[in-house]
Amino acid sequence: MNAPAIQHLRDYVAIPSVNPMGRDDLPSSITGEARYAAHLREQLRGLSIDAEEVGGHDRPSVVAQVRAAQAGADTVLIASHLDTVPVDGMEISPFDPVIEGERLYGRGSCDTKAGMAALVAALEQVLGRGVLRRNLILVGEADEELGSLGVKDVLTALGDGRPDWVLATEPTDLRVINRHKGVVHVRVEAQGIACHASNPGEGRNAIVLLSRAALALEALAEKLSKREDSALGSPTLSVGLMRGGHAPNIVPDAAYLVADRRLLPGETLASARAEFEQALAEAGIADSVRIASCRLEKPTLSTPADHPAVDGCVRALEAVGQAGEISGVAFGTDAGVFEAAGLPGVVLGPGSILRAHTAREYVETAQVEAMTAFFVELLSAS
Questions:
Q1: pTM above the 0.90 mark?
Q2: Which pLDDT belongs to residue 108?
Q3: How many domains is the chain partitioned into structurally?
Q4: Domain that includes residue 231, residue range
């Protein structure tokens, strides 16, 4: 398959850009966005596009700007993150982009190098025909999968040169996403007293205390499930990590858990933390455990359905034979980070979120080509 977007995608997947996610056990040969950022920067410069790396550290992002010839054109920022999740447990060679039937396999193929491949292929067409009618800020941001460091660097680099709206490419099956949940991570710590396991009454078991905290959070999760948003469903809470103890014959003196809380639009970091504190207090363990940290990882997204970002994407999709469906999703994206900075927008891209982060990650090549056609329409339609 020789379609330009598919070839670009194969090239991108072959460049490891794993987000280390705070781990120190991953080889440097596959971690970080620097290799992919350098490739993309040079590729864009080859199209005579002013592209630069921003960030001033070892996790660079790429920013490129292309202006339409006519005055008064609106400006869209299209962002596709450079990083991927790690490759532990993958059942395919993660950086060997193989096409089988109508699928291209590899880490990042779906999430979300396909979006960037489609955008670059569309730019090649639009610039080659001289029909660019929207100003474009192309962004390849680092660290979307963890802390959104790249978006913060990009916003700093843009200064006052802000776009009218933002499109973040993520796997949405070509649906226009105007609302999504936010993400809060809470770390709860229990402090015990260590002693020999032959006489446990002399100590205080931090794992037991932490288990009570986990059950309190599970009870809170049940309460949250009773709330309902017509498009996004319920807010959720899930304990995803627990650690503690030293050996079976030692009563543990410390343990911690990390839980994931998904926010609905209108909920805040402060309101989520208050609920955590209340849950621990109601369980009678507020004096035994503490909230060590509570961080907003991704803000919510809530762009009105009649916003120009939504309308422009729907019209472009319909113009190339796609459905133009508007929807909401449970996962968080950098679109929420941009919105929190005053830049409204949408999420849209090829592939399914059900394929992202999986042991056999893939994207359907037909969707990549459809996304390319969408970008051509979006950038060239008057």
A1: yes
A2: 98
A3: 2
A4: 182-298
